[in-house]
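Entry type: protein chain
Record version: 2
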Amino acid sequence: MRVIPAVRRLAVTLALLALALGVAVGARTEPGRSAPLPGAAGLPRVDADHPPAAWGGPDGRRALDGAWVVRDDPQDRGAARGWARGGFAGRRVHVPFSPNAGTVTGPGALHSYHGSVAWYRTGVAVRGGAYALRFESVNHRATVWVDGRRVARHTGAYLPFDVALRLAPGRHRVVVRADWRDPEAMKAVGWHRAWFNYGGIGREVTLRPLGASALAAPAVRTRLLAGGAARVDVSVRVVNRSATRRAIRVAGTLGGRELAFGTVVAAGRGGTATAHATLRLAHPRLWAPGHGRRQVLHLAVAGEAGWTSRVGLRELRWDGGRLRVNGRPVTLHGASLHEDAPGRGDALGAREMDGIVGRLRAIGADATRAQHPLSPALLERLDAAGILVWQEVGPMEGPGNWTSTTPSRRRLARRRDVVTVEQERIHPSVLTWSLANEAAGDGHAGGQASYVARAARLLRRLDPGRPVALDVWGRGVPADADGLMYRGADLIGVTMYEGWYDRPGERPGLVAAHLRRRLAEAARVFAGRVLVLTEFGAEANDRNSPGAPGSAAYQAALLARTIRVVQTAPGIDGWLVWTLQDFALTPTFGGGSIRQALPALRLVPGLNQKGLFTYDGRPKPAVAAVRRLSR
């Protein structure tokens, strides 16, 4: 398709330029040379440094997960007090760490939700040279200093950013200021989130050495051939960091088999090119739902750059209203997730991520859904578990709440799409890129339809082996799917809350009948597309009478009834319960519109209690019901 609008060209150019410089979109960096920090300069020492002997990882990176010190700064006085140099005391923590994750309900929760400022510091020892300091997520505005010199600013959450540095041999001090004040202001400029406003360094921090070239954004696409063979296409972006050469030779292996990339031309410092290799496998070991088979992909420019990861080979197809993985029809079943854990918020550690995967396995899930880009560490676990991910990218919005209404905000949203796709496309678990949450009709005023159409074309170009999806609000299913909003969507998710927001407490037979009618209408409108019920459910706790709406028994019965209808409904390719586990919301949230129909409903303010598991991980009766029907 020969459609390359100027705005799209600009988005791609900016994204490629940012990645070539080692800086994620949304970040402004100020790289510079730093001398080693003297051991005694009037600054508190960090006892556990990050020594150079510990370098490791796929490209020589070192996880800076040792000792950090964090200091709250609710009055925002740290800058004036010179904390950029690291001269502050505080709590000793390990990152990821969210300073306000301990107060999400009860007294003080609203103050915690509105946000604050916190300062982090740590030390790192290096042998000297060029490095990239990488943050996987800081919410919401981050400022970074190294040895007192400001080196980067970044705005966003769940978006990685790199800071290019040249460091002298010795020990250096890293300081990060995180500012997550005013979630309403974040929402107004396109950074809306429908859950608690956790702040701080929410994902891992790493440091890696840089050579004369760099490798970025690898991709793997598998296509099955006759007789059970497969063709695997591997690509990687090559960034030239030398001003004196043009040609760069890339080498690689996949599962021990050599990849023939050859030489690429990336002229001048900062020049980029994409290296391609194709490998034919007579008997491929394929990744599939429930079978997380993976093999090692190694890419390198000798003596300069490297990339190593475990990848899964699998083919996705979506035609005739059916989703197929490796040629076999797949019916999705599972539950959506949020990265949230008591006391940690969205700053999850290994135990919390393992818990999420364990709960998905406990319900027999082959798929999950996320409304924000998931962390690479969690995606690796989902890869290994063989669980597909319906991944939303870009702005997270609900019906009537699409805030990215200016051209600059739409460009920002598309750049966020690019960064997420280029980071996550290496993961076989990622099934689809979803560009809207609860879209309605032909899209919201302000340009949502044109944004979706352009972004769909962009993502299809960046990642042709995956479908593009939209999640549609059940009450807002359009009259037809011929409009601009839906032309580029391969998969359609639909939200329907029969028996909860729609006719709560209604007799079971009527709930099922209404659901069949509405699903049939959606299947008619989106005929030929893969259609999945991606959101349904009900709040559940022990504060309501047994069997009444809001009770665990009512939730279990309603979910079972809904799933049985979906399993027999023509044209529906699966279901995803909302949600896997209870999670924290705005502390003032008391249930939303359900209160109008059920004024006596008793809920815990500030918690979404539609989870199959409680906030602290205990299974509700719905777990057993969903597990039985997952079989």
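Comment: The CA atoms of residues 247 and 423 lie 25 Å apart.
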